[in-house]
Design brief:
mainly alpha, 3 helices, two-stranded antiparallel sheet, about 5% strand
């Protein structure tokens, strides 16, 4: 069983803001998942089955050839930017 404190620690590290009732729900859902994993582990011969690393077929799309076009000037590139400083686009800080 995963403890509520452990879930709070994970949520804090992942910067999730959760109510106490959500931790209880998550804790009960983890219990269900762990029980299901135990059931799978009890299947006869499961240890002899080779794990699947990527079960999906990958379709490779053919990419078009690059076409050289006229370049934009620095002024054209920066024209629609909300904030520009030293010829660089300024964006809000998103990481604490």
């Amino acid at each position: 069983m995963i403890s509520k404190e452990k879930l709070k620690d994970y949520a804090s590290k992942l910067m999730f803001d959760m109510e106490d009732s959500e931790y209880e729900t998550l804790q009960s859902e983890f219990e269900i998942i762990l029980k299901q994993m135990d059931l799978i582990g009890q299947i006869e011969g499961i240890s002899e089955v080779e794990p699947m690393t990527f079960p999906y077929v990958i379709y490779h799309a053919k990419l078009r050839d690059d076409v050289v076009k006229d370049e934009l000037t620095k002024e054209e590139v920066l024209y629609n930017a909300k904030q520009v400083k030293n010829e660089q686009v300024m964006v809000p800080k998103v990481v604490e």
